[in-house]
């Protein structure tokens, strides 16, 4: 509760309320002040509710606040009894009721502002059904609903535009960029026109180019139409395939079924539908109508307090007790304990309840079956969209399984072949290893022979020399090409450097002169800048001192002028008061009675006497009214009873006249038939 009050006080001290409350001052607010505070918060959300509650009745205030809270979808905590207490607390300004409402409103002010704004246009005006039978009223109501829907769509578009992040600055930049592009394109077109005008037969060439462009656009549109027709043809083929599958399934179902089973199924459906139509649905409609009638009755009644609810509960308990006593008396009187009909009635009631339960289960199963069928259709449609192929039926699935089995055997056969190849690879790998070992043994024997002959390493050295000579020849060729390229590149670079030096020589001379002049000007600029800064600093100090002096003099002048005006006004006021006092004294002392009556003292004395006489008359009149109140009320009650009695007699008289007129018409009709 403390956190809630702290939050409320913080929000009320901020914009736009600026109440400057603390916890103690907020907690010490009276009920009327709390209600005014709640009305101010509601007025911030909806400006129509920014009113002074002292200018309206408490019932009107509570009704207005309850209507707005209902529109804002505020849910007070608790049960029905708590709701009545909530209404009562809202009327009296109770703190336990007002504080949660303020906390809820201040938590989501922006959201509630939007909801209140939308409620002005989206809360539907309920028109009674008997008024809607008039064509004009029905047309206006239809236009009203269409305008409401149009407002919903416009508001959604507005919110989407706000969320999209497009700003007016970005749109203006885009527009300006487009206009620049448009100007550039226009200039380019003008240049192209001027360039084309010099060509012979340019009009004919332009016409041919225009026709070419039109034909290309037509080709693109035809290609697009072709693509659309292809897609439509593909979807039509898919629908045809689905229809053929459904036809096959229906034919299969019809082929397997017999007339007896179909008739039995139809009889069961007819029995179930007739049970729903004759027993279940009328009973449910009657219960719904009864509940609606009672709810309308409850809504039409005024707000009930806790005392009214307790009294109604007491009456309900008494009526239930009386009903139980009457049922017991009836059972004791008409149904003796040894009667066998009670057992049959119980069995019949049990069977009827079981029947109702099974009917409900059957209806739920049918609804579930229909929902599952819709889901199957939806999933099949999604599968068609994703894969572009039909969902397999039972026969197609069997064919698919047989194909899968044949592929499985083919896979096993290929797997055996792979195993054989793997084994052969192992054999070849072992052969390679043996050959490598033999090669190593031969190399060792060769080395041993070379050692015996005194030329060890001869074969290895020969191989290395051959390899190195081959690599060297390749490197020599690459080096020769690289040196040729580098020499050519150096020649080109030297020539380019010489050309650039020749072209830059005069520019370098001019640049040296410009650098020298730039240094001189820079020195002169620095000197002038130092002089300017010193002069500006002195003038700035003088200006600030003069501004302070002028400001002080202006303030002194304004103060003196205000003092002069105040003294002058006080002087005029005192002069007027002195003049009025002299005139009053003159009129009071004057011997003329007419002048004395004009005195203020005499006027107030006369008014006091008149008011005292009026008070005496009103007290006497109040006394007379109090004495005659009881007899008058009794007499008024008698006149009301007399009026009701005369009204009842009038209605009876009119009924008798109508019955007599109807009887006379019937008698005249009988006489006419007799005459005929």
From TrEMBL:
Residues 3-126 form the IFT81 calponin homology domain. Residues 137-253, 309-389, 483-563 form a coiled coil. Signal peptide: none annotated. Its main location: cytoplasm. One of its GO terms (biological process) is intraciliary transport. Keywords: Acetylation, Cell projection, Cilium, Cilium biogenesis/degradation, Coiled coil, Cytoplasm, Cytoskeleton, Differentiation, Phosphoprotein, Spermatogenesis. GO terms for molecular function: tubulin binding. The keyword Coiled coil applies. The keyword Metal-binding does not apply. It is found in: Cytoplasm, Cytoskeleton, Cilium basal body. GO terms for cellular component: ciliary basal body; intraciliary transport particle B. InterPro entries: IFT81, IFT81_CH, IFT81_N_sf. PANTHER family: INTRAFLAGELLAR TRANSPORT PROTEIN 81 HOMOLOG (PTHR15614:SF2). Belongs to the IFT81 family. Component of the intraflagellar transport (IFT) complex B: together with IFT74, forms a tubulin-binding module that specifically mediates transport of tubulin within the cilium. Binds tubulin via its CH (calponin-homology)-like region. Required for ciliogenesis. Required for proper regulation of SHH signaling. Plays an important role during spermatogenesis by modulating the assembly and elongation of the sperm flagella. This is Intraflagellar transport protein 81 homolog. It comes from Falcunculus frontatus. The gene is Ift81.
């Amino acid at each position: 509760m403390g956190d809630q009050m702290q939050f409320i006080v913080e929000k009320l001290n901020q914009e736009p309320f600026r109440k400057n409350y603390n916890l103690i001052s907020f907690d010490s607010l009276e009920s009327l002040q709390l209600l005014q505070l709640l009305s101010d918060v509601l007025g911030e959300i909806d400006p129509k509710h920014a009113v002074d509650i002292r200018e309206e009745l408490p019932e009107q205030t509570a009704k207005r606040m309850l209507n707005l809270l209902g529109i804002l979808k505020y849910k007070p905590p608790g049960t029905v009894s708590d709701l009545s207490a909530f209404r009562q607390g809202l009327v009296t300004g109770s703190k336990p009721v007002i504080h949660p409402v303020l906390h809820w409103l201040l938590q989501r002010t922006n959201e509630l502002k939007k909801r209140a704004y939308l409620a002005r246009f989206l809360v539907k005006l309920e028109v009674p059904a008997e008024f809607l039978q008039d064509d004009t009223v029905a047309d206006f109501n239809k236009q009203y609903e269409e305008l409401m829907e149009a407002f919903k769509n416009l508001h959604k578009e507005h919110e989407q535009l706000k969320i999209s992040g497009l700003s007016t600055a970005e749109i203006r930049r885009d527009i300006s960029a487009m206009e620049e592009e448009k100007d550039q394109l226009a200039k380019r077109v003008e240049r192209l026109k001027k360039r084309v005008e010099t060509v012979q037969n340019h009009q004919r060439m332009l016409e041919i180019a225009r026709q070419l462009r039109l034909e290309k656009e037509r080709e693109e549109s035809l290609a697009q139409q072709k693509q659309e027709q292809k897609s439509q043809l593909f979807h039509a083929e898919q629908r045809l395939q689905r229809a053929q599958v459904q036809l096959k399934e229906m034919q299969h179902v019809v082929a397997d079924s017999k007339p007896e089973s179909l008739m039995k199924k139809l009889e069961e459906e007819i029995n179930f539908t007739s049970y729903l139509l004759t027993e279940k649905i009328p009973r449910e409609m009657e219960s719904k109508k009864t509940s609606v009638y009672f709810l309308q009755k409850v809504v039409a009644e005024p707000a009930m307090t806790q005392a009214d609810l307790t009294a109604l509960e007491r009456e309900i308990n008494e009526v239930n007790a009386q009903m139980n006593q009457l049922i017991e008396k009836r059972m004791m009187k008409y149904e003796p304990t040894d009667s066998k009909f009670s057992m049959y009635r119980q069995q019949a009631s049990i069977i009827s309840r079981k029947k109702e339960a099974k009917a409900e289960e059957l209806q739920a199963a049918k609804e579930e079956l229909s929902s599952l069928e819709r889901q199957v259709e939806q999933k099949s449609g999604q599968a068609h969209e994703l894969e572009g192929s039909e969902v397999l039926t039972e026969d197609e699935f069997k064919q698919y399984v047989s194909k899968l089995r044949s592929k499985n055997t083919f896979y096993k056969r290929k797997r055996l072949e792979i195993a054989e190849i793997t084994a052969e690879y192992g054999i070849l790998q072992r052969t390679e290893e043996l050959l490598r070992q033999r090669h190593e043994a031969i190399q060792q024997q060769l080395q041993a022979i070379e050692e015996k002959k005194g030329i060890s390493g001869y074969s290895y050295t020969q191989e290395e020399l051959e390899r190195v000579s081959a690599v060297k020849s390749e490197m020599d060729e690459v080096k020769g090409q690289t040196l040729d390229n580098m020499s050519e590149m150096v020649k080109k670079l030297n020539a380019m450097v010489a050309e650039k030096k020749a072209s830059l020589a005069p520019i370098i001379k001019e640049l040296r002169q410009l650098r020298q002049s730039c240094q001189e000007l820079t020195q002169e600029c620095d000197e002038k800048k130092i002089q300017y800064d010193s002069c500006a600093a002195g003038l700035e100090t003088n200006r600030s001192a003069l501004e302070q002096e002028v400001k002080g003099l202006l303030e002194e002048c304004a103060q003196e002028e205000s003092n002069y005006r105040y003294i002058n006004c006080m002087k005029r006021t005192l002069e007027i008061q002195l003049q009025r006092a002299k005139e009053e004294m003159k009129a009071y002392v004057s011997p003329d009675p007419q002048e004395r009556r004009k005195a203020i003292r005499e006027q107030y004395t006369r008014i006091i006497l008149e008011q005292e006489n009026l008070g005496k008359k009103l007290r006497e009149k109040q006394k007379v009214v109090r004495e005659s109140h009881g007899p008058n009320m009794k007499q008024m009650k008698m006149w009301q009873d007399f009026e009701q009695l005369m009204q009842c007699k009038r209605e009876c008289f009119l009924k008798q006249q109508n019955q007599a007129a109807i009887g006379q018409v019937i008698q005249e009709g009988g006489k006419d038939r007799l005459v005929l």
